[in-house]
Amino acid sequence: MDIKHSVELIESYLDLDRKPVGIKFFFDKNEFKNFDVPQKDRKVTYCNSVQLASKGSAMKLTKENQGCPNGAIALKMKEAPEPMKSGKVRFSKNIYHDVETSKSISDEMMFLKEEPVGIAVMPLENYKENPDVVVVVSSTYNIMRMIQGHGYFNGYTSNLRTVGLQAVCQDLTTYPYNTKDINITFLCPGTRLVANWQANEIGIGIPFEKWYEVVEGVKETTNPFERNRNKEDISKRLKERGLDSSSIKFNENYDDGSYSGGIIEIEK
User: pTM to 2 decimals?
Assistant: First the structure.
């Protein structure tokens, strides 16, 4: 499997409205300069750059491009001020019950440890070399399927951490980058404002080291988890891309014969 093929597979097995986004950090000036993607010519919030990439845009960003202070802090392009580290800022805005709780949030967030020269944010399919993190923002159903794909090889997902703040920059990017493990987010009010995500969308961040196995896991769990209606759509998308659909098995699920009483009926 390569990057292009992995995107073709995930877009066939899941009904994605957005492209998977690849994030790459650069710590060498020449490598960043020579990376053949235009640098953004204005400020943009990091989460909005991810939203733009999910719709096809590609860009490079430096600290001068950062339009959100919290995003810049997560990406080590700005130092966190002491009132934020101490918890006083968020407590003063009534986000948390007390300073101690507020401080615990700052203490537990995992930001970049080294300042990058720059960042590339673009559709995963555009990469010829491996990015560091893959971000997918989609429906709750699709994120469930990706969790199941991850579980196929890795078992129970016990490390998920989110609190409804710094959702794209920390939950989906720097946390997976630091831990080399997946994470999900329900997004946050800030990114829902500036990046205009849909109300029913959530996100998953995947270190690239795990990307191929998540894709393969989604493929392998299609027959037990997907119902016939979805299998028909998956089979159609695979055929449209010239991919093999012969492994799709209809009338076959993990819970066959498990339930009593049948599917609930709503009285009209």
Answer: 0.94
